[in-house]
Specification:
RNase_HII/HIII, RNase_HII/HIII_dom, Nucleotidyltransferase, domain 5, RNA binding
């Protein structure tokens, strides 16, 4: 039997509220482990009213539920922003550095600005009070809200990339390492939105000159 879904609450936000930091931004990312496409980071400040929301970790929901709840997040949020780090930035900074960079860009766009942060184990360099517990997307309403925006926006982008790069099935696997993705890489080669420093892609790039040399007359 699968474990029951965890219901978020306001425990991490309340710790900041008690210290007078009422604008608490939840931060979460989507696409960190994918082989292609951006890593997408969202930041959300929800009203500090301790209201119960249907928001959950996006991984616990169907695509239709994610879209419905993401729209609700955008309606009720005090402020929200979504930013992307594309493969060029990921390859230059590494995935953690690119995720941090996108997170800081999203936070900089929040108006009004946050007074404290709750992230899903993302230990950002910041002067703001920060809580970064593991599984925060399942435990915190603010982080769950951010996970919904990050996931739905990244899925939308991967569907657009599927049309621009036919044959890779980005709309189906969203750039993750599914068998169909690996097969497409071997058949079509590396596209312009693949992360060249990620091991499966890097191995294929390293093998291409050897293959070309072997095919020379």
């Amino acid at each position: 039997m699968s474990a029951p879904a965890v219901t978020p609450d306001w425990a991490f936000e309340r710790e900041h509220w008690r210290r007078g930091h009422f604008r608490v931004a939840g931060v979460d990312e989507a696409g960190r482990g994918a082989w292609a496409g951006p890593v997408t980071v969202a930041a959300v400040i929800l009203p500090g009213l301790a209201t119960e929301y249907p928001f959950r970790d996006s991984k616990q929901l169907t695509p239709a539920q994610r879209e419905t709840f993401a729209a609700q997040v955008r309606r009720v949020a005090v402020a929200w922003a979504v930013e992307h780090a594309w493969p060029e930035e990921i390859d230059r900074l590494n995935i953690l550095g690119a995720t941090h960079a996108a997170a800081h860009r999203a936070l900089a766009r929040l108006d009004p600005p946050p007074q404290a942060l709750v992230t899903d184990y993302l230990r950002l360099r910041t002067s703001l009070p920060l809580s970064a517990p593991p599984r925060a997307d399942a435990l915190s309403y603010s982080v769950a809200a951010a996970s919904l925006l990050a996931k739905t926006e990244r899925d939308r982008l991967m569907t657009e990339l599927d049309a621009r790069y036919p044959g890779y099935s980005f709309a189906a696997h969203k750039g993750y390492g599914a068998p169909a993705h690996r097969a497409a890489l071997e058949r079509l080669g590396v596209s312009g939105v693949h992360r060249r420093t990620f091991a499966p892609v890097a191995r294929l790039l390293a093998a291409e000159p050897l293959l070309a040399a072997a095919q020379e007359p």
